[in-house]
Amino acid sequence: MRWIIRLLGVFVTLAVLGVVALLMVPAERIAGLAAAQLGQSLGRAVTISGAVQPIFWPHLGVRAEGVGVANPDWVSEGPMLSATALSVRLPWTAILDGTPQIDEITLIAPQITLVRAADGRASWEMAASTAPGAGTQSIAPAIAIAMAEITDGSLRYIDAQAGERFEITAIDARLTLPRDGALSLAGRATAQGVPMAFSFDLAALSDLMAGRLSDGALGLEWAGGTARFDGQLGLSPVFSGQLSLDASDLTPLAGLAGVAMPDLPQGFGRQRVALSGQVALSDEGSAHLRDGRLQLDQTGFALALDLTQGAERPMIRGTVTADALTLPGGDDSATGGQGWSRVPIDVSGLFATDAEIALRLGALGLGDIALGPVDLTATLTRGRLVLDIARLAAYGGAVSGQFVVNGRGGLSVGGDLSASDIALLPMLRDFAGFERLEGTGAGRLRFLGVGNDMASIMAGLSGEGELRLGAGALRGIDLAAMIRNRDTSLQGAGARTVYDSARASFTIADGVLANDDLTLAAGWGGATGAGRVDLGGQSLDYRMIPAIAQSGDNGAIRVPVLIRGPWSGPSIRLDLEYLAQQELAVERARLEAEAQARIDAEVDRLEAEARARANEALGTQLQQGDTVQDARDALEQRLRDEAEQQLLRLLGRGN
Which of 160, 175, 190 is a domain's end point? Predict the structure, then answer.
C-alpha cells in the first residue's frame, strides 16, 4: 500500500511542476526531468520512452507514453510497472493560485509485476527518499485529486518462497482524493478468470500515511459472492472491524490469497459459505475473530478464534460450537461384504497449522449415521491430531476416551475408547453392515492401525478390549431349538436366540480379533464361545457351545454351533464333527479310566500277596501301604532282636 501511495504522490507532484514548465521547456527535457525525479523519489530506475505531449485546452495537462518503473536487479520477470501511457490534467485555477489540485490522472494498460524471492526479499520494498518535496507524508495530505483512472491494467504476483503465483487482469479502476483527505477507490478486474468488482474507502489518508489508523471499508463483489470489511485500517498492516462474506464460489478469494481452492465436501460449503464477525490483526501478526458466525451450506457455527504465528506454522486456538454438523458419509464399500475402501486418505492438511480447539455440537451426522451431543477438544501438533472426547452421545449411549490421527511418516490411527449403553443393532449395521445382534452393550477398546487407506488400516489393526452385553438376542438363529431338535433349518428370518447377558474379552493382531472366553447366560441354559473375527477380511470363524437345560437331573445338552463365512451372511451349522471328537475324547477318557482302575486293582492284589509271603518268610508285620524301606527296617529290627537273644544265651551258658 505504501509504495502505491508514494508512486501516486510523485506522479501528482511531478505533474504540477511539469505542466508549469511546459510553457518554456522542451518535451524531451521534461521527460528526462520527470524520469529523474521519479527515480530519485522511488529509488528505482524510471523510464519515459515515448513522447511527452503538453495539453493547454480546455485543461492544462501532460501525456507521457512508454512509462516504466524497474524492479530490483535480482528480479528477472520484468519491470515493476510498465504503462502504455500516463496523462495528468490540472485545472488552470490550480496553477494560477498555486493550489495542488488534479482534475484527472489516467494510467493506460499498466502491467504491474510484484515478486517475493525465495529468501524473503520483496520487489516492492523501496528506500525512503530524502528529496525535497518527495516524502509521501507531506505530499499525500496536501493534494486533491478529482479522479485517477487505470484502464486495462494487470497485476502479476510471484512468490518464490511459497512456490505460488497468481494474476489479476482487465483492471479498470477510479480513485478520488478530495482536499479533506478522504480516499475512494472503485473498479473491476478479473481474478483467476472470474470478473469481480472492488471498492476501497478511507476516511483520512493523512492518518494512514502518518502510521495511524483510519476508518475505512473494503469491498469485493463477483458473480459467486460478496465480501466486505468496515472498521479501522493501518499500513503495518493492522486492522480491526466487522467482516462479512457470503459466497457460493470462493475461487477468486483463494486466487487473491495465492492458494488453490480445495474441493469442498458435499454439504460442507459447496453451495454456500457465509462468515461474519469482529476481526482484528495486530502489529505482532496475530489475528482474532470474535462473535463469529460461519455458515457452510445448511450448517451454522459460532466461532471465537485466535491465530498466532509460530516458528514452523500458524497456531489456532479457540472454540467452535454448532447446533448440528453433518459430515460427508463414508465409502459404501466399507460395508455389505464389498471390502474396505482402498481410496488413499489424504492427511496433508494436518500439517497446515497447529491448533487447540474446543468443539461443542448439538448433533453430529456422518452420512446416514446420526450421533448426539458432542463435547471434545481437538489438539493438532505437527500433523498429529488428538481428539479428547469428554462425551459423544451415540445410539442411546455414550462414548468417551481418546482418538488419534497421526500423519507423521505416513498415516496411523489409534485410540482408547470406552462405551456404555450402546444399542448394538443400529451401531453394527451402520459401521460394519452386521445386522444379527440386538440389545445394549458396553465395553472398552484400545487399538492401533497403520496404512494410507481403510483396507490397509483394518488389515493391520492391533489392540485389545472387552465387551459386556445386557439382555438381547442373536438374530437369524434359534440355538436352543436347533440343539434340542438337532435341526439346522431353525435359522433365517424370524429366528432368534434370546440371552440375558454376555461377556467377552479379546485381542487384535494383524487385523484379526481373537476371543476364547465368551460366556452367554440365558433362561434356556447359556453358551460359551471362542473363535476369530477377521476384521480386514470381514469374515467370521467362531464356535459357540450352547448348554441346553433339560428337565429333572438329566443335565444339559451340549452341541457346538459353527458360525463361519463373511459377516454380511455367515453360514451357521451344527458342528457335528467337533461334537463327535468331543464324544470320542470323553469315551477315550472313560476307557482309559476303567483300564487304569483294573491295573491299580491288580497292582494292589500283587502287593498284598508279596507282603503276606514276606511276613511269613521273614516274620515281619508289614501292612498295606508300607514301603520297601519299611520292610527293610522291620527285617533289620528282627535280626537285631534275634542277635541279642543269641548273645544273652551265650553269656548265660558261660556263667
Answer: 175
More confident position, 370 or 629 = 370
Q: How many Cβ atoms from other residues are within 10 Å of residue 180's Cβ?
A: 11
What is the spatial distance between Cα 175 and Cα 102, in angstroms, rounded to a whole number? Answer: 12
Q: Which of 199-213, 324-338, 473-487, 593-607 has the highest mean pLDDT?
A: 199-213
Please tell me whether residues 20 and 75 are part of one structural domain.
yes
CA 493 to chain centre: 41
Residue 8 pLDDT > 80:
no
Strand partners, 341: none
* For residue 374, pLDDT beyond 80: yes
Distance in Å from the first CA to the final CA of the chain: 148
Judged against a pLDDT cut of 90, whether residue 15 lies above it is answered with no
Whether 52 and 165 map to the same domain: the answer is yes
Which range marks the domain in which residue 636 is found? 601-654
Q: With residue 11 as reference, give the H or E element that holds it.
A: helix 2-21
Are residues 623 and 510 both part of a single domain? no
pLDDT digits (tens, 9 = 90+) for 514-566: 999 999 898 888 889 999 999 999 999 998 888 876 655 555 667 788 888 98
510 shares its domain with 640: no
* Residue 444 CB partners (closer than 8 Å, separation 6+): 416, 417, 418, 419, 465, 466
**DSSP class per residue in 179-225:** TT--EEEEEEEEETTEEEEEEEEES-HHHHHTT--EEEEEEEEETTE
Is 549 found in the same domain as 607? no
Helices (H) and strands (E) in the chain, counts: 11, 36
Is the same domain home to 559 and 605?
no
Q: Per the structure, how many domains does the chain have?
A: 3
Radius of gyration of the chain (CA): 46
Q: Is residue 606 part of a domain?
A: yes
Per-residue confidence (pLDDT) for residue 355, from 0 to 100: 95
Query: Mean pLDDT, to the nearest integer, of 150-158?
Result: 91
Note whether residue 626 is domain-resident: yes
Q: Do residues 2 and 98 share a domain? A: yes
Same domain, 6 and 91: yes
CA distance 148 to 71: 23
Stated as kind and residue range, the H or E segment containing 637 is helix 628-654
Any idea which residue has 449395521 for its cell? 429
Examine residue 158 and state whether it is found in any structural domain, yes or no. yes
339 belongs to a structural domain: no
